[in-house]
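hey so i finally got around to running the thing on that chain from the lab meeting. sorry it took forever, my laptop kept dying and i had to restart like 3 times. anyway pasting the input first so we r on the same page abt which one it is
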Amino acid sequence: MVEINRFLKGRKEIFDVGTGPNGSAWWSQIDKDAKITGIDSMFFVKDVPKNVRIYNMNAGELAKITPKYRTKRLWFFGKFIPETVQWTKRFDLVVANHVLEHVNDFPSTVKGISKLLKKDGRVYAGFPDHRNFTDIFYHLIHPNNGGHIQLLTDDFVENEFRKNGMKLISKGVWPDDWLWFEKLYNWKTYMWPENKFLSQDKIEYLANVFRKELTPEKGYFYGWEMVFEKR
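ok and heres what got predicted. didnt touch it at all, straight out
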């Protein structure tokens, strides 16, 4: 991530949409007195930092939140407890990184993000552009689409956020480091496990070729980093 580091300082109440199995990389970069509220519906962190609270919730459900909303908080790994939360108009920053392409209901997710933000609060959104090489290649090597079910573009995303009272204040091309392909892609599951000619070494070779040849200067990039501010 390039842009998000510029917007973490001074933000005391941060909402993380999609915490994942290991938490987000930027958690270690926030102010010492800042607090993080996060949601996920599939993966949950085993060792949750003291300044982080995680809830079992799908991103699309955010549109339904009320000033006193009943949900379930991660107590310890695999166990959840009921809790009433007050999330409306509370957060300085909402982070939606590698999330928007996965949600079932994109408009509801954006509406929910808007409900979370204070006036002048900001949201960072990082997502792939479906017209670019990476997302096309991603769908090619994932027979089940790999969870990328929204076909997003910069104009489409900006328009949806604008309809929900947010203005674009920063936008940048997001280069692909290809680590997702090199480190996370399980080719034995998605491709042909009986293939004797494919190996992890060859996956790493391809990743290095992509890094060298598929550069932003040549028009190849992962997607967009966009930051919006609540009006």
